[in-house]
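Quick one:
INPUT:
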């Protein structure tokens, strides 16, 4: 959450000539409501069910770049779908950086009415091992320009395709 998945994903798709999908946006498009409303009406479990359905559908497509929600890796089914059907890139950011990027965002249901830094620390502790286990490639985003991260990803993808050719 706040690592730059959507921003980097859009740019990467454009550079690679692929179609970009954001699972959160796809959920909103399918339901006609914003993510916070889904959380309010269905809770996190209802949201996760919808998220898995979108990931199932999108992983059947070719030539795409997909950005998932930050919690998508919680479910084993999602991790398996992602690993089996593509190259998984983990954009890793430290808790301070995530806090800085998300502290004023009112559209993140899991960060409302809580100590945001403490919640992010909890998420990092729970999710980092899952992201690490699932990822094909890991990039530390830190406080660097998006273009630097994008260049690193493109270089690594190019090197992978040469090795696999």
């Amino acid at each position: 959450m706040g690592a730059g998945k959507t921003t980097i994903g859009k740019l990467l798709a454009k550079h690679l000539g692929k179609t970009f999908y954001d699972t959160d946006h796809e959920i909103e498009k399918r339901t006609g409501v914003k993510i916070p409303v889904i959380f309010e009406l269905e809770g996190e479990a209802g949201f996760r069910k919808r998220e898995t359905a979108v990931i199932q559908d999108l992983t059947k497509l070719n030539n795409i770049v997909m950005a998932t929600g930050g919690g998508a890796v919680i479910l084993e089914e999602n991790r398996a779908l992602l690993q089996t059907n593509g190259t998984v890139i983990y954009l890793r950011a430290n808790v301070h950086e995530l806090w800085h990027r998300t502290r004023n965002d009112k559209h993140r249901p899991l960060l409302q009415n809580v100590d945001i830094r403490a919640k992010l620390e909890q998420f990092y502790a729970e999710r980092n091992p899952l992201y690490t286990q699932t990822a094909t490639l890991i990039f530390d985003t830190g406080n660097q320009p998006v273009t630097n991260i994008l260049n690193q990803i493109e270089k690594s993808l190019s090197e992978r395709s040469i090795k696999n050719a």
